[in-house]
Specification:
With 202 residues, the protein is mainly alpha-helical. The longest helix is centred in the middle third of the chain and has 28 residues. The chain binds glutathione (GSH).
Length: 202
């Protein structure tokens, strides 16, 4: 199995954390979305792109994780019971939405000031991040993991989005006002899957 995509992409990291939790071996090809390997396999030219052992390409991160989760029985990241599975997927959508808005803001911030979008656009993106964090803070409450006693896709996704906020928008200081997420993130960060996939500081 091959995972295509650079370590700086939070969606790539999400897949790497899942693979590490599942203790599955794979080849990590550090490459960008415009590379020939990616564009030949993925018409959307995005990372992560994944190649199964028989060469079948998969995308996006959500589909890749569902595939990876099916490869061995334990630990199960996506719960089997329908209501729990849907809820874990909702956590993933929330986390991906936070990452989408964070990626958009940090890309915009890299442009010369005169070329950046207006304050309304920034406020709209910020509202997505704020709203997503508030929902996750409420939903995790004082539980040991997002969905209760065991780590699931919800924790993989939530932890990835919090780690990306630290990296891309440190000025945002997401820990303020989110003590439950702070506690959860400290615990997740200590896991080997999170520690070994942390991208190098740029
Ligand atoms: N929803 C996708 C998002 C993937 C994504 O947007 N990746 C970015 C890198 S962080 C990318 O490849 N961007 C290139 C492009 O959009 O052309 C996923 O979960 O895999």
């Amino acid at each position: 199995m091959k995972l295509l995509g650079g370590s700086g992409s939070p969606y790539v990291r999400k897949v790497r954390i899942a693979l590490a939790e599942k203790k599955l071996a794979y080849e990590h090809v550090v490459t960008g979305p415009a590379s020939p390997e990616v564009t030949q396999a993925n018409p959307l030219a995005k990372i992560p792109t994944f190649l199964c052992d028989d060469g079948t390409p998969l995308y996006d991160s959500s589909v890749i994780i569902e595939y990876v989760d099916s490869l061995n029985a334990s630990p199960r990241l996506i719960p089997e019971v329908f209501a729990d599975r849907i809820d874990a997927k909702r956590w993933e959508a929330l986390s991906d939405g936070i990452m989408d808005a964070t990626v958009a803001i940090s890309h915009e911030d890299r442009l010369p000031e005169a070329q950046r979008k207006d304050a309304d656009w920034y406020a709209k993106q910020q509202k997505k991040v704020d709203g997503g964090l508030a929902q996750m803070e409420k939903d995790v409450g004082t539980k040991p993991f997002c969905k209760g006693e065991a780590l699931t896709l919800a924790d993989v996704a939530c932890g990835t989005s919090l780690g990306y906020l630290d990296r891309a928008l440190p000025k945002f200081e997401w820990r303020k006002g989110h003590p439950n997420l702070d506690r959860l993130y400290q615990k997740l960060s200590a896991r080997e899957s999170f520690a070994t996939t942390l991208p190098p500081k740029t």
